[in-house]
Amino acid sequence: MITVVKPSTRILSVMYYAREPGKINHMRYDTLAQMLTLGNIRAGNKMIVMETCAGLVLGAMMERMGGFGSIIQLYPGGGPVRAATACFGFPKSFLSGLYEFPLNQVDSLLNGTFSAEMLSSEPKDSASVEESNGTLEEKQTSEQENEDSMPEAPESNHPEEQETMEIVSQDPDSKEPKERGNKKDYIQEKQRRQEEQKKRHLEAAALLSERNADGLIVASRFHPTPLLLSLLDFVAPSRPFVVYCQYKEPLLECYTKLRERGGVINLRLSETWLRNYQVLPDRSHPKLLMSGGGGYLLSGFTVAMDNLKADPSLKSSTSTLELHKTEEPAAKKRKCPESDSTFQKLL
């Protein structure tokens, strides 16, 4: 018997972890639940996510938010991978609050050098490549037709063969305008999609430039330290952030860098321990086989950074002031031994 079940985060995470754990960076379903809880994912939030887990983390966030709020997905490469997100079957209303932004443009956005021309240069190049590919394909097809007709020319002695040759030569000529029209429509549709994508990128850049995101989720195969240090600037103070990694050592390095940088509190590096139980009448016991590990999580909260920490000259001045405050006046130090001697005389 086959039962059709509505897809959910738990079903998809269990399926991916059992069949293809490499696609989700070996993230266990209880670790994903901890990420959603520690990241305070709820309706109405403005979240930033950078993940390379086939869109599973993104789909879990969209399901938790219920179509309310906005999610900005940062993606590496040419475009985001949302294979698992498509399995959820979200309606179009859920996708209206989903934005995407290329990861290689984050530095320009932080430096204030980002412009629409950086995004507009890519679609034009791709369109010109497609047009050139179309002309090359037409040239190749015409050359192939000429090559095919060349060996048949010396053998065309019979009238039947000449008629067949004429029919074959007439068919490609009649199909060429249709193929050209289809290619033009395809190019126009591609350009329209690229313009829409550029518009969505500009909207995502505007949302990021406000720097008031309600949370940050990072679950990628890249090293988490440079990602987190650059993306924390887009998060508002007193907001949670969660970083997932399959291994512990990269998160330990990220932990030390965050402590040196400042601006975060309540840092915690954790690992969940999962063990299944068999529940039967008079035969309930934990199973002998269990998962070896489901990854590690680094979580914390952002706080407003003190300007004194950023400027080293101010640090030195504040340290001298603190020394002056802690040191006692010289007069008091001289009176201490006299009081001790008089106290001994009285005794």
TrEMBL record:
Q: Which GO terms describe its biological process?
A: tRNA methylation
Instruction: Output compositional bias ranges, type Basic and acidic residues.
Output: 172-198, 322-331
Please state where this protein is localized. Answer: Nucleus
Q: List the record's Gene Ontology CC terms alphabetically.
A: nucleus; tRNA (m1A) methyltransferase complex
Q: Supply the alphabetized keyword list.
A: Nucleus, tRNA processing
Q: Does the keyword tRNA processing apply?
A: yes
A Pfam family annotated for this chain is Gcd10p
| Disordered: annotated span | 121-200, 319-347
Keyword Nucleus (UniProt): yes
Q: Which PANTHER family match?
A: TRANSLATION INITIATION FACTOR EIF3-RELATED (PTHR12945), TRNA (ADENINE(58)-N(1))-METHYLTRANSFERASE NON-CATALYTIC SUBUNIT TRM6 (PTHR12945:SF0)
Family assignment from sequence similarity = Belongs to the TRM6/GCD10 family.
Descriptive protein name: tRNA (adenine(58)-N(1))-methyltransferase non-catalytic subunit TRM6
Q: Which organism is it from?
A: Balaenoptera acutorostrata (Common minke whale)
